[in-house]
Each structure stands twice: as C-alpha cells, then as structure tokens.
Design brief:
Order of helices and strands: HEHEHEHEHEHEHHHEEEEEEEHE
Strand content: 15-25%
Number of strands: 14
Radius of gyration: 20 Å
CATH class of the largest domain: Alpha Beta
Helix content: 25-40%
Strand order of the largest sheet: 7-10-11-6-12-13
Length: 333
C-alpha cells in the first residue's frame, strides 16, 4: 500500500476481504505506526515505512496500490520506482486515467519502463466506472451523437483542508478571479476522463479546452475542513467545464463541481446525450469514496492479467464485479 490515508485504508480493507496479503505500506505522517492501527484492519503485521523503493525492493509485491496524489508530476517518480523493481501498479491518480494527451512524454516513459520489466501501470477509481464505462455504454446505444454532456459534483469536506484550499474556499469573487488569472493549474480531472471516453469509443480528439466558474455561497456556510464559516457571497468551490471536440463529430463535455455542500446536497452524476435518440442517465446520492475504492479493487485482476505497459481503462475489459478472492480471477500472463 503506497498511501494509507482515507482512500488507502478503505482499499486495504477491501483487498484483504478479497484474499490479498498486504506485505508493505508506505505513508508520510504515519511512518512507524502499525498498519492495523491506522486502518483498523486486524491481523496485519505490517509497519508503515517512508521509502517506497526500499519497501518494494525488499518485499517484491505483485502489485502496488498507489493513493498518494492526483497528477503525473507528483506520482511519476514513485510509479517508475515500483515498475523498475518488477511490481505492477494501480493508482487513483486522476490525470493518469488517460494521460497520453496531457503528459505524453511521461506516459511514454512509464509505458516503456513497464514493458521493459514485464509489468503494468493503470489508473482507476470512481471516474472509471461512472464517467467512462457507463458513458461509453450509453453512447453505444445511440445511432448518431452530436454532444454528450456530464454534470458531476463532489464534496470538498470529504478530502481535507489541503483540497479545500485548492478549491479556493472562502475567497472573495475578486480574489478568485485574481487566482484564476495567475494560476498554473495541472490538467483538470475532467479532461483525461473525456479523453478516456473518446478512446473507449473509437473517437479521435482534435481539441480540448477548459473554462472555470466559481460557486458562491448563497448563505453563511460552515466548512469543517477549514474550521471556518464561509459568508454568503464568498467562494464555496468551483466548476471546471471541459470540452473535447473529435474528428468524427461528437462533442464531449464534463462540468465537474467541487464545493462545500450545504445540508441536503450529495454527490451526483448525470449525463445527457443529444443525437438519435436523445438519452440520459443519472445516479443520485453517490457514496463516491466507496465507489472509488471498490472500482479500483475490482480492476486489480484485470491489471494483473493485462499485457505489460501503460494500460488505460479504455484498453482493459469492461469493468465488472469480481466476487471471491482476487487470485481466483488471475490467468497466466
């Protein structure tokens, strides 16, 4: 386990319930603590360490589950260290869901190293199931497509103070506009998602763009992550609107909102397809933290069975429930 925070702890529990043996764990603020104490999983004798390369070299795992960061520049070094020591890697790094367009050189390097050492790197998570697989299936039921537009939301409170600050919670409208003008932001989570949808649907991406709009509080709203009240009129978060145009015609759009929720709001996922026929799908009140982890765990056998290299979810078999022990679903590579 490379990362033993909220997501890593849930994944570790799910993996052990599917018969996996955890042989090592790497963290930051919990170094030296028993993994069982941090995650609440009994009968795990691993102590959390700080050096991923040393742990992988010593324990020789079949798979490293990586839940440390979202972007290529933050995960590349650790991914390469694992691959070079013969470990497959599956991560929650959202950019790496499909990073051939956003970080082509880094993706090519990871692909080459993975192939050299006979292992696989894949990114999965909530967006794999709800923003790629379901949407690609919906598109497969249409005869003609003009546009596919998704609207998704997530609660800043679920991911701690660092992400709340990244979402500019508490800013005035003027402060937000100043930040947006000067921000050197990594790719949004929506862009690689739409690129994966395009790849899964046989579409050729010709243009990608992003617009960002603030979400303002309509009443005083308490933010638990920052231990502060956001006054009405100030920023609760923002919406990224990603648009991908394809050579074949269909336009793909994802409006993704990360904000502090008020009472009664919940994570949601809704998509509309304009074409022949018009179609839609919607998932209400999604427990995103659980779907994120369960999706990754269900992908594990497919990653271990995949050909070596950087393998996106667009190239894996369709996502499906994998009952029983993970080992029961493995084939000789």
């Amino acid at each position: 386990m490379y990362g033993v925070g909220a997501m890593g702890s849930i994944i570790a529990r799910m993996l052990t319930e599917r018969g996996a043996e955890i042989v090592g764990a790497v963290g930051r603020s919990t170094i030296g603590k028993p993994l069982s104490e941090v995650t609440g999983i009994p009968n795990v004798t691993v102590t959390i360490e700080g050096d991923i390369e040393e742990v992988v070299q010593r324990t020789r795992p079949d798979l490293v589950v990586m839940t440390t960061a979202s972007y290529m520049e933050d995960v590349k070094e650790g991914v390469l260290a694992c691959l070079k020591h013969g470990a497959n890697v599956i991560s929650l790094a959202e950019e790496n869901l499909y990073s051939w367009h956003t970080s082509p050189e880094d993706t090519a390097e990871i692909d080459a190293v993975a192939k050299e050492h006979g292992v696989t790197y894949t990114c999965s998570g909530h967006q794999d199931g709800y923003w790629v697989q379901l949407v690609a299936t919906l598109m497969g039921t249409a005869h003609h497509i003009d546009e596919v537009r998704g609207r998704a939301s997530w609660n800043v409170e679920d991911f701690g103070p660092e992400l709340a600050r990244d979402q500019q919670v508490g800013d005035t409208l003027e402060e937000f506009a100043e930040w947006l003008r000067g921000a050197e932001r990594p790719p949004t989570f929506g862009r690689p998602t739409l690129h994966a949808v395009a790849a899964a649907s046989g579409l050729t991406v010709v243009e990608s763009s992003t617009a960002t709009e603030p979400v303002l509080a309509t009443e005083d709203t308490y933010c638990k992550a920052l231990e502060m009240t956001v006054p009405a009129g100030k920023v609760l978060g923002f919406t990224d609107i990603d648009t991908v145009r394809t050579a074949e015609g269909p336009v793909l759009v994802l409006e993704m909102t990360g904000k502090v929720y008020v009472e009664g709001q919940a994570d949601s996922n809704a998509w509309e397809l304009k074409g022949e026929p018009d179609l839609d799908l919607e998932n209400q009140v999604l427990p995103t933290h659980l779907t994120t982890c369960a999706t990754l765990v269900n992908r594990v056998p497919q990653v271990l069975n995949a050909e070596p290299g950087y393998v996106s979810v667009a190239e894996l078999p369709p996502l499906r429930f994998q009952p029983g022990n993970i080992a029961d679903h493995l084939t000789a590579r």
